[in-house]
Amino acid sequence: MSGRNRLPHPRTSPPSAGAHHPSTTPTPTSSTTWWEAHPLPTYTTPTTPTPSERPRGFPHPHSAAAMIEERMAAQHEDVQVLLVDNQHLAATHVALKQELAAAHHELRRASAAAGGLRVDRDAHLREVASTRFVTRDACFGAAEAYRKQHC
């Protein structure tokens, strides 16, 4: 316990390149320092872990700029899809307006034709009615003459 705060002796020379390998690790002797007897492991540049290696809940290690770029690219794609949809809707709107105008024109033409047919029908009915009245009057007149002669 008395040696808890004591630091080991400083290293007198830097460790060799493969110092952490067991075959190159020097055996502790009285002339070696603690640092030479226990070399630090060498580290390589960390690589981005694959999604299976990354713990759950940890974000992708992209920088904020890359995330913003990805979000902007996704929004750009969304805008392009919306523009295409808008063009299709505009073309459909124009086609529907043209169909509506054609239907109104056809309705006006049919209404005018129906009005002309109504006038023709009314004239024909008046003619038929006047013919029937004349015929009926003639029949009544003939019946009166027959009654006068035979009764």
Describe the structure.
By secondary structure, the chain is mainly alpha-helical. The protein folds into 2 domains: 9-40, no CATH class; 78-151. The chain contains 2 helices and no strands. The model has no long low-confidence stretch (mean pLDDT 77).
Can I get a quick summary?
The protein has 151 residues and is an all-alpha fold. It has helices at residues 34-37, 64-150.
Order of helices and strands: HH
Helix share bin: 55-70%
| Main beta sheet strand tally, sense and closure | none
Q: What share of the residues does DSSP label as strand, in percent?
A: under 5%
Class of secondary structure makeup: mainly alpha
In whole angstroms, how far apart are the ends?
A: 161 Å
User: Mean pLDDT score, rounded?
Assistant: 77
Instruction: Write down how many β-strands occur, each being a DSSP E stretch of 2 or more residues.
Output: 0
Overall shape: it is rod-shaped
Number of domains: 2
Whole-number radius of gyration? 54 Å
Q: Poorly predicted ranges (pLDDT <50, ≥5 residues)?
A: none
Region (Disordered): 1-60
InterPro entries: FLX/FLX-like (IPR040353)
Biased composition (Low complexity): 22-51
Keywords: Coiled coil, Developmental protein, Differentiation, Flowering
Throw out a few tags for this protein.
mainly alpha, 2 domains, 2 helices, 0% strand, differentiation, coiled coil, developmental protein, Protein FLX-like 1
